[in-house]
Every structure is written in C-alpha cells, then in structure tokens.
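Structure (tokenized):
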C-alpha cells in the first residue's frame, strides 16, 4: 500500500491535566497494529502538548491544532510554527471547519498557513469540507475543490500533507457520512489532485475522513478504497479510539 493508514485524534478544546494523562495512559497501554501499518497522531490543546509529547509512547506522534500564519512576533495569543518546531511537535492541523466558521479563517488564509508551516518542516493535516446547505444545493465538490485549490496554489511539495475531508454536517453531530458518500468525495478529491497537481501526488497523498467516526462505523469506512484513515474528534477522547486505530488492519487485509 503506497498510502500508510493514518489515524488522527483531534481533542479540540477539551481536557484537564488529569484527564489528558488518563487518555495518554490508555493509549500507551493499548495493543495496536505496528507503525508499518498505521500512523497515529494525537492533537491535544496547545497547553498540553509538552506533557502529552513527554508521556506518549514513541510510536505515536503529536499535532498542534493550529498555528500562526507567518513568523511569530507581536501577535498576542498566537502560537507560531517556529515554536512548534522548537518543541519538536511534528504535525499541525490547519483549516479545521471550526476555525473556518467560528474564527472566519478564509481558504486563502488557510493556504498561507499550510505553506508557511510546511516551509518550516512541519507536517500538515489540512482540512476541507462542505456545510449541509452546500451539500443539499449540490455544491459539495465545488466547495472542497476550491478549498483544496487555495492550498495547492501555495504548496508545491505534498509529501508532508494529509488532506482531511470533514463534512461540516457530520462533525460532532453523530451523523456520519455513509461509506459511499465518503468514498465519492475522496475519489473526486484524488481526481482533482491528479488533474491539478500531478499523478504522483494524487496516488501518494493520504485523504482521511472526519466527522462522527466511532468504534462502530470505522471499519466499513476504512474499507473504502480512497479512505486512507480518519481524523477523529469526540471518540478520540475515549477508549474506542483504540478500535479506530485497529481499523487500519481492514486496509492491510485488502
Ligand atoms: O472535527 C472532527 C475532527 O477534526 C470530527 O469531530 P467528531 O469526530 O467529534 O465528529
């Protein structure tokens, strides 16, 4: 398999110091497929990054949930990409729909962030996805293509990018995309990459699904040919995250 299965856990703005340690203990004690089969990345809030990185098993990695768009400086409240590099945080999630909608991050701004983070050597989980209204009006593909285009316009090196398709209507709602719905968009995104970036990038870039993934629905989603893993929200705070990591074996058995 050219694309190693990828499971990200986005803890969002959740957790106390005690809870975070408990989650890490559960992860550390879990038996999961080897690093050759699945890449696991957990993303705690900024303030917990050092403690999680320090305690977490070495075969799992950490991601920040955001970073500033350019070099740090007089930007009160922001966290720079340089700081993540300095702390040895390898990954960052950018363009999450909660930031796009609640904090008005435009696709261009997200594209700038992705390019800047990559330029410093960070690996990026770049998120795209349509709202329910956009899906119902038939513009899903136009929306995710435009969001991807804003990233592709500024990025020439895709090895360190994972593309996360997260339909907004499926995030935190319990309304998961059906395997067919996810596969359809992932395939279209891969075609878009093929036509607009290049054949090699299209084949090698992991496109992961996010939106109400849980221990019960992960296997069927993982069985879809263009679903290369997950970005998990709520369930990544619970022991069932282990089951989601284990769904990587569905892929390796195909
Ligand atoms: O936004 C998500 C991951 O980034 C998905 O969240 P849920 O899994 O809670 O729906």
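Design, position by position:
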């Amino acid at each position: 398999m050219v694309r190693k299965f990828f499971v990200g856990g986005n803890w969002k703005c959740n957790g106390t110091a005690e809870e975070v340690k408990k989650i890490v203990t559960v992860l550390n004690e879990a038996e999961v497929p080897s690093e050759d089969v699945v890449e696991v990345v957990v993303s705690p809030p900024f303030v917990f990054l050092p403690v999680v990185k320090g305690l977490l098993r070495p075969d799992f990695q950490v991601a920040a949930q955001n970073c500033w768009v350019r070099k740090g400086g007089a930007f009160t409240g922001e966290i720079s990409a340089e700081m993540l590099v300095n702390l040895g945080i390898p990954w960052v999630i950018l363009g999450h729909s909660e930031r796009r909608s609640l904090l008005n991050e435009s696709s261009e701004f997200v594209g700038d962030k992705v390019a800047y983070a990559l330029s410093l050597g960070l690996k990026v989980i770049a998120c795209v996805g349509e709202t329910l209204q956009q899906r119902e009006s038939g513009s899903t593909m136009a929306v995710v293509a435009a969001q991807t285009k804003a990233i592709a316009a500024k990025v020439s090196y895709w090895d360190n990018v994972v593309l996360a398709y997260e339909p907004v209507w499926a995030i935190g709602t319990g309304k998961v995309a059906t395997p067919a719905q996810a596969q359809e968009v992932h395939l279209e995104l891969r075609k878009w990459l093929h036509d607009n970036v290049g054949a090699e990038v299209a084949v090698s870039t992991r496109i992961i699904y996010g939106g109400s993934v849980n221990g019960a629905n992960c296997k069927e989603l993982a069985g879809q040919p263009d679903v290369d893993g997950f970005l998990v929200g709520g369930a990544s705070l619970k022991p069932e995250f282990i089951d989601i990591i284990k769904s990587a074996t569905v892929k390796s058995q195909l």
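Reviewer-requested clarification: The mean pLDDT is 97. The longest strand covers residues 5-10.
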